[in-house]
Design goal:
Length: 355
């Protein structure tokens, strides 16, 4: 049976953060037109999820009447669809960009002026995409009486709080969005990415935190219906929630993780922590150097064929099975000699202590 390199389905936190910073670098290097286009599409996708949540949560009066917690739960169970669509199609949310682009600045991969450009353009793109979908909704005759009633109640709730309260809720909201972005980078398959998005996004909705890009569509619909004024929405929700989102993503989240795993903490990856393409992304083990040392070992025979199914922690290990004396039986670490088993365990302990 042919050998193959095994890959972990979850990256380590440090690698996920550095990947997040690299994603911010890519966004900052995009042209303004592409940033706007990706943000515009993200505004449309987040509006899709907003309409879905409004329509379905309002269509179950027998269940939700007199039970606001159940109504909120129904809304929260459906709303994470937006982040899944945006993340997997390359959309840009200004809230998420505040974390990724800021991380790129902390890691010396981008300039602050580019971050400001990306945030301004993506904010406008998210708003205009939501505006288009808000106009699209009545054209499709989907702005029903029930949907309008739920949207009006939500608008009253989101514009009735003091500025500082909405600002604080904005901090909490984008903290969860930033966590979702990081966890999505850690997960390496569709199911993992879905769960990484689902848990923090549904949590922020259930708790009642504020997320500016989500509020664009949810409050534009009541504006079109005449339930609330544009100035009221802008001053009492969009501005404070946006500022809170940017503080959470750019300072609290990206700043903290740069200190933990990046440049702000003066943590530079050492040679043993480098990850090669043949290594499992979650281990950070230099498997290439490990193999080279194995071949140079004086008491070892030439390496086995690459077709041999010999694995150590998910990577093919070149060991000559013909040399039976020092070779152990198959176990949790695969086929390896006693000295190499001890050496491997020592390296593993060192790496995880570092990480």
């Amino acid at each position: 049976m042919g050998g193959a390199d095994a890959m972990s389905l979850v990256k380590a936190p440090q690698e996920a953060y550095l990947g997040l910073a690299e994603k911010g670098k890519v966004i900052c290097e995009e042209s303004s037109l592409k940033v706007f286009g990706q943000a515009f599409m993200a505004g449309c996708y987040i509006s899709f999820a907003g309409l879905l949540s409004l329509a379905m949560s309002g269509s179950m009066p027998a269940l939700a009447d007199g039970n606001p917690g159940l109504h909120t739960m129904i809304f929260a169970l459906l709303f994470p669809l937006n982040m899944l669509l945006i993340n997997l199609t390359g959309g840009i949310l200004c809230s998420a960009a505040s974390a990724t682009a800021s991380a790129a600045v902390y890691e010396k991969k981008a300039k602050a002026i580019d971050v400001l450009r990306v945030l301004a353009i993506s904010w406008l793109g998210n708003l205009l995409g939501s505006l288009l979908f808000a106009a699209f909704t009545p054209w499709c005759e989907l702005n029903t009486a029930i949907t309008g009633q739920v949207a009006a109640a939500l608008a009253f709730q989101k514009t009735s709080k003091p500025f500082h309260v909405t600002f604080a809720k904005g901090i909490g909201g984008n903290w969860m969005v930033s966590v979702a972005v990081l966890l999505t980078g850690q997960a390496q398959d569709f199911a993992g990415k879905t769960m990484a998005i689902y848990l923090p996004i549904s949590a922020l909705v259930m708790v009642g935190l504020e997320h500016a890009p989500a509020n664009f569509y949810l409050l534009l619909l009541p504006i079109f219906n005449g339930d609330v004024s544009f100035v009221e929405v802008l001053v009492k929700n969009w501005i404070p929630s946006t500022l809170g989102n940017f503080v959470a993503g750019g300072l609290i989240f990206a700043g903290s993780y740069s200190f933990f795993f990046g440049h702000l903490g003066k943590r530079t990856p050492c040679e043993k922590c480098k990850t090669f393409t043949s290594a499992s992304p979650s281990t950070g083990i230099d498997l290439e150097a490990f193999r080279n040392e194995a071949q140079d070992e004086p008491d070892r025979q030439p390496p086995a064929s690459e077709n041999d199914d010999l694995f150590v922690a998910g990577a093919i290990t070149p060991i000559d099975l013909k040399k039976q004396d020092p070779v152990l039986k198959a176990g949790p670490l695969g086929f390896c000699s006693e000295s190499w088993r001890a050496r491997f365990l020592k390296d593993m302990i060192w790496v995880y202590n570092e990480v």
